[in-house]
């Protein structure tokens, strides 16, 4: 079958006229079969998509935005989920009713999709070149060599350098941002009419996110593709969208031009959603600037070093080393929040784990003035009580087989602080303190929502009345509105209990809102540190500037012309044995604001 | 924050909570399983009182005039065997042996396998490496040969047979437990336990073992049929339960060559093994679901 025939079969009458929408969804209802009957996850959704337009579908988890995109692609997980009413008109074709054989010709060819996690959407055992060529061959009558040409062209279009050599590489050899660009190349190689991007940048680092968004914008401009961008991030919406649909609980509650929605949202929900988005230099619950305290630090780290050996060969000798943390020093005072920021692989979580006693390290860690290295097992256990941790994923950090009341009581029992009866009262008090219903104690973690679980984790961390709580990306996995309230809780707890936080995050906007002091990590070392105002109003290190620039601004009026571009990839912290990385030297540029020379 | 955003704190519907036994009795399949187990246990316990014959009694009327065994009839409900013994009596008495082997031998195998697998999976390093290489060695060694060697060294008795079977059967369990434990040990909640100061034994017993219960139950129920059959093999080779003591396995092996002429001799003990294994499987399945809190309220 030739390309022409395919096009005719698949919808040759797709609208060429500018006035007619490319996609016309009307009355779309998607149902999911459950044990207690079918439940609508998307209700009566209607919208149109014009040629060359970017439409954002925004909403929090469970709003039905991903289901909508899967329905357009004909990829609903049938038979559990199905379109129960309405139509999805693509030209004259109703995609909701189209049989699988014809749908397959449209998918990838006329309507393409990119997903959140580029690693799992590429086949790990095939080279990216082969995957690209195959996708092109499936949908066109091109010969293999022509398809290859086209694939290389597509890779060049997504700004992948040395496209011809890259064709031979496998997905694991590329970075996350590169993989997502390969996915975009694959999606756009066939010049589809519609590109659906489901949270395309959520799994990527902030600086890479900017690049990918800019790429999408450029490609759209040059090719006139219509884009449906599905996201929870109002910053991304403001940067990208022409029009926005806000969804909540399966229904569209607002639909309009981006400027209008951001300036004058029609519903209370959108207003609240926008208010909950953290912004640099603003936002509802921003931490006031406080003078640095002079009290004795609760924890101090000096010259911390964590390296992981990579063994290989027959004899299992150390061949390479990952220099995860190299000479990091900082201290945290009571009632203070120190933010440790950086992108994935910069060593921020490793630093936290070393401080929490989870991994071996070199260097000095002092808690409450006592050096951990010189202590016996029992003493160390007692000192460790002072440092507690709240993890990123509240779904993974609670034992699913224990009742939450027992989980919160566990630290009290381990450290023999309370008898079982006292425990109950203490746990009830903790539940009340973090805003959980007391009757929840008898339930299991899976019965709670993400925000509630993170509250459980916080209650658990507070049970031992620690002086330092490490929050490792603790709000990153939460919806913005929930995130705002958990941050609020953390702030209140600090006011009441005087606890110090080591707040680890990649999100500069959140950090700007909650921290007193900031330390920026790059390749295992701190490259800039100072008070929040010093770092944000006068970012001196180029990497800090790039991190701040990369944060999408939730205001369409302040849309940036170009995102900051990375000059190549971040180098790897893995080095050959004996090849020690160079230590940066921090210089004071005034008022304790330290910057790498 | 306005109220426009749904609060993330919602009271969940309250559900009546019942004990594990109550829940077990609420499931028809589990009840069938429990009933079969009850019948087998009762049959084994009251075997001498249920039939008028002794298991090793060669009954005069038990053979035809040509010396053929009798098919099921009014006197011998399940027929007789080649020596004119009542098959029902032998199966009832054999249930004692088979239950003992199925529960004790299999139980010992599970305990050994779980201990070794969990230790290796949790501690890794050289301890784990050594334990798992030993397990691999045992796995590669022909199980039957090992059983024969062990049985030749010790005088055959029911306990020795059970031990021999256990020593052959723990290997697979250890492998499975090792894999499960090593993936559990990587989960974030284990890190979370360490940060609150939990000791290794606390983590192992409170946070890892409960997650292995479903696997232990599945392997436990699967193991019952395997061990019962292994006992039969050993009996056949003359190193298992010594005749004339009946066991389901040795009844089958004694008679398998006459399968076409006297099918009931293989059929009925075969059914008994199948029913017992199935019953344990049904109960095990139900228990696994009931003991898993994340499954609660789903079915």
Q: Considering residues with a beta carbon less than 8 A from a beta carbon on another chain, report the largest interface and each chain's count.
A: A-B, 57 and 32 residues
Main β-sheet description of chain B: none
**Helix/strand class of chain B:** mainly alpha
Q: At the third CATH level, what is the topology name of chain B? A: MetI-like fold
Q: Order of strands across the biggest sheet of chain A?
A: 16-17-18-13-19-20-23-22
Q: Which descriptor suits the 3D outline of chain A?
A: globular
Low-confidence stretches of chain A: 1-17
Task: Give the low-confidence spans of chain B.
Answer: 1-16
> What is the mean predicted local confidence, pLDDT of chain B?
82
CATH class of chain B: Mainly Alpha
Beta-strand level of the residues of chain A, as a percent range? Answer: 25-35%
Here the CATH topology of the largest domain in chain A equals Rossmann fold
Mean pLDDT of chain A, nearest integer? 84
Shape designation of chain B = elongated
Number of helical runs of chain B?
11
What's the main sheet of chain A like?
A: 8 strands, mixed
H and E order of chain B: HHHHHHHHHHH
What's the number of domains of chain A?
2
Beta content of chain B comes to under 5%
Q: Kindly state the percentage of residues in helix of chain B.
A: 55-70%
In CATH terms, what is the architecture of the largest domain in chain A? 3-Layer(aba) Sandwich
